[in-house]
Structure formats: C-alpha cells, structure tokens
Amino acid sequence: MDLDTFIQTTSPSTLIRAVAKTCGLERWDITGVGKSQKIMLPRVACYWALRKKGFSFPKIGEFIGNRHHSTVIYGLRLATARHIEVLEKTMGDLEKNGQVVQQ
User: Fold this and answer.
1) Contacts from 4-11 at CB under 8 Å and sequence distance 24+?
2) Quick check: 41 pLDDT over 70?
3) What is the pLDDT of residues 47-92, one digit of tens each?
4) Can you tell me the distance from the alpha carbon of 90 to that of 66, in angstroms, rounded to the nearest whole number?
5) CA neighbor of 46 nearest in space, from 63, 67, 70
6) pLDDT of 99
7) How far is the C-alpha of 101 from the C-alpha of 18, rounded, in Å?
8) Taking 60 as the threshold, does the pLDDT of residue 36 lie above it?
9) Counting beta carbons within 10 angstroms of the beta carbon of residue 67, is it exposed (0 to 12), middle (13 to 18) or buried (19 or more)?
10) Is 3.40.50.2300 the CATH classification of the domain at 3-96?
11) Mean of the pLDDT values across residues 24-48?
C-alpha cells in the first residue's frame, strides 16, 4: 500500500491513534496541549494527513483537540519530510502487524 492509499482509507480517529502508537505516545498526547518536539512532530504529521484527506482547517482543528484553524495552518507551514516519514513508519507498522486499516 502506498502512503496516499493509506491516508485515504484510514479514518481520522484511527490515523491519530496509529500515529500516536508508532511514536510511543497516547492519542491524548497528540490531541492535548503539549508542545514538545516529541509531540509536535506526530501532531503535524496528523494535520498533514488529514488535510491530504480533504478536511478543512477548522475540521482538522476539531479532530486534534479543538484547535483553532490558524494553529493548523501554522503547523502545516512547518511540515517537512520528517512528518511524512512518521506517516510512512505508521503505515509500515500497521501492515507489519496485520492490522486492517478501515474507514
């Protein structure tokens, strides 16, 4: 499965949980108020993936702890190849563990 297919076939909730697990975090770490690099990297990866799924900035903010849409826009401006690597690792972990990705 390629990254685009993974993103399009994974529900927002499952995506957030899977990214958190891959990064050694809990879902509430990503949706919470923490701002450390360990939390921000996976959080922005989720922003990027949800935007790629076609969600609006306000809707992404709702999914990620009721953040203001401008916070999501700012985070996406900072997105780098490292954020995509987080998503690719998450996808690989799910496939390796034989977990079914569902919408």
Assistant:
1) 4/52, 6/87, 6/91, 6/94, 6/101, 7/49, 7/52, 7/53, 7/87, 8/53, 9/101, 9/102, 9/103, 10/49, 10/101, 10/102, 10/103, 11/102, 11/103
2) yes
3) 999 999 999 999 999 999 999 999 999 999 888 888 888 888 988 8
4) 23
5) 63
6) 65
7) 10
8) yes
9) buried
10) no
11) 93
Give the pair of three-digit tokens for residue 55. 């969600």
Structural domain spans, the chain: 3-96
Query: Is the pLDDT assigned to residue 100 strictly greater than 70?
Result: no
Per residue in 9-19, pLDDT (tens digit) is: 999 999 999 99
Tokens 């953040």 label which residue?
67
User: What is the 3-state secondary structure of the chain?
Assistant: CCHHHHHHHCCHHHHHHHHHHHCCCCHHHHHCCCCCHHHHHHHHHHHHHHHHCCCCHHHHHHHCCCCCHHHHHHHHHCCCHHHHHHHHHHHHHHHHCCCCCCC
Query: Token pair for residue 56?
Result: 């609006």
